[in-house]
């Protein structure tokens, strides 16, 4: 399997993250990527660097004003004499206007953010461009490669057309799916196995019939992102029937997960896609510090074996996974499962 990664993806380094009321070390930190790379290298895999793409393929799924904001906000933050990371102060909830970004720096950060765990640092723009480059490189060569892994970091599936959150800024899987469409694939399926619902991916394709979004995730009634991911969200307009959410309860073990996976894989296969993008989160692991499913090390080989049954060219896009010490080994288990080795 071709694996794509750039060390530029280690430049986004948040100073901290609030967890349970206390400011501590961020879960989504550069070490995640280094652990994934280390695991793959010890398993004998070669890692290639991505090509640099222009912003255009990213702007196919993201708002131009949002991208300009992401590029400039940290230097504006510093120019305003501020230390630390750019951080929202308010959110445009019910009865607030959310139809246009305010003028001020704080107003704009607050307009585009949907949580407080996703901050913008000096290296964020370069990092998210490199992460998207991995997805775009994998998508460009997918028909030739058959299978590939874009080792994206930071993740992407919580980011929407004009919002960031859940550690995500550019929706790498959505950018890849759109690039595959633009390269001639008529139908693209996205299968999301991250612990969390990919609210950004769902929102981007919700009214489209050419991109299926199928996701297995923690019930939003109990888990982040809290406000999307229920089973009755099935798509809208032309996209009606092209969105499939399978929420599962906290404590879910492999037997239940496996049944849900069969349903999701059945939906993906029935869609008749020309290519598949897997949003590969490994935060379903029992020891993940953010999550509440109970998948074991061995279950990841089974997950890989199931994903290996997808008949189309398939690219895997890295999403979440925060049990740092197990990240590399679990990813390798999935890859061995996919390849049947
Ligand atoms: N500060 C992904 O797995 N909640 N994102 C953090 C503690 C955010 C997870 C709560 C979880 C986001 C891609
Ligand atoms: Zn996640």
Task: Summarize the topology.
Layout: E1 2-4, E2 17-19, E3 22-24, H1 30-42, E4 47-48, H2 56-59, H3 64-79, H4 105-112, H5 124-140, H6 142-145, E5 147-150, H7 172-182, E6 188-192, H8 199-205, E7 211-218, E8 243-248, H9 254-271, E9 275-280, H10 297-307, E10 314-318, H11 327-339
Parallel strand pairs: 1-4, 1-5, 5-10, 6-7, 6-9, 7-8, 9-10
Antiparallel strand pairs: 2-3
Helix pairs in contact: 1-11, 3-4, 5-7, 9-10, 10-11
The site of N-{4-[(3-aminopropyl)amino]butyl}acetamide has 17 residues, from strand 2.
Task: Report what the structure shows.
By secondary structure, the protein is an alpha/beta fold. The protein contains 11 helices and 10 strands. It has helices at residues 30-42, 56-59, 64-79, 105-112, 124-140, 142-145, 172-182, 199-205, 254-271, 297-307, 327-339; strands at residues 2-4, 17-19, 22-24, 47-48, 147-150, 188-192, 211-218, 243-248, 275-280, 314-318. The strands form 2 sheets. Strands 4-1-5-10-9-6-7-8 form an 8-stranded parallel beta sheet, with helices on both faces. The chain has a two-stranded antiparallel ribbon with strand order 2-3. α9 (254-271) packs parallel to α10 (297-307). It is globular. The N and C termini lie close together (12 Å). The structure holds N-{4-[(3-aminopropyl)amino]butyl}acetamide and zinc ion (ZN). The site of N-{4-[(3-aminopropyl)amino]butyl}acetamide has 17 residues, from β2. Residues 17-19, 117, 155, 158, 166-168, 194, 196, 224, 281, 283, 290, 319-320 line the site of N-{4-[(3-aminopropyl)amino]butyl}acetamide (Q9C).
């Amino acid at each position: 399997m071709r694996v794509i990664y750039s060390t530029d993806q280690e430049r986004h380094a948040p100073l901290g993250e609030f967890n349970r009321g206390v400011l501590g070390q961020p879960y989504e930190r550069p070490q995640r990527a280094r652990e994934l790379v280390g695991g793959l290298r010890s398993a004998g895999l070669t890692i290639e660097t991505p090509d640099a793409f222009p912003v255009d393929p990213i702007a196919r799924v993201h708002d131009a004003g949002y991208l300009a904001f992401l590029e400039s906000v940290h230097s504006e933050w510093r120019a305003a004499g501020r230390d630390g990371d750019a951080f929202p102060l308010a959110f445009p909830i019910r009865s607030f206007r959310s139809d246009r970004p305010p003028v001020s720096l704080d107003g704009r950060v607050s307009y585009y953010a949907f949580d407080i765990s996703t901050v913008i640092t000096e290296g964020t723009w370069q990092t998210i461009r490199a992460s998207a480059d991995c997805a775009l490189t994998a998508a460009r060569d997918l028909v030739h490669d058959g299978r590939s892994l874009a080792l994206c970091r930071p993740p992407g599936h919580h980011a929407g057309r004009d919002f960031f959150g859940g550690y995500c800024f550019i929706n790498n899987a959505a950018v890849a799916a759109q690039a595959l469409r633009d390269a001639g694939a008529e139908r693209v399926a996205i299968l999301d196995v991250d612990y969390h619902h990919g609210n950004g991916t769902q929102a981007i394709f919700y009214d489209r019939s050419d991109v299926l979004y199928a996701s297995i995730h923690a019930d939003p009634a109990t888990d982040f992102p809290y406000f999307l991911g229920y089973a009755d969200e099935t798509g809208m307009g032309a996209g009606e029937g092209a969105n499939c959410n399978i929420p599962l309860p906290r404590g879910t073990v492999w037997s239940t997960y496996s049944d849900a996976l069969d349903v999701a894989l059945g939906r993906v296969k029935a869609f008749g896609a020309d290519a598949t993008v897997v949003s590969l989160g490994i935060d379903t692991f029992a020891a993940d510090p953010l999550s509440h499913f109970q998948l074991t090390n061995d279950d990841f080989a089974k997950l890989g074996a199931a994903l290996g049954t997808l008949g189309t060219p398939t690219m895997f896009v890295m999403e979440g996974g925060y049990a740092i010490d197990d990240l590399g080994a679990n990813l390798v288990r999935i890859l061995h499962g996919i390849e049947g080795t």
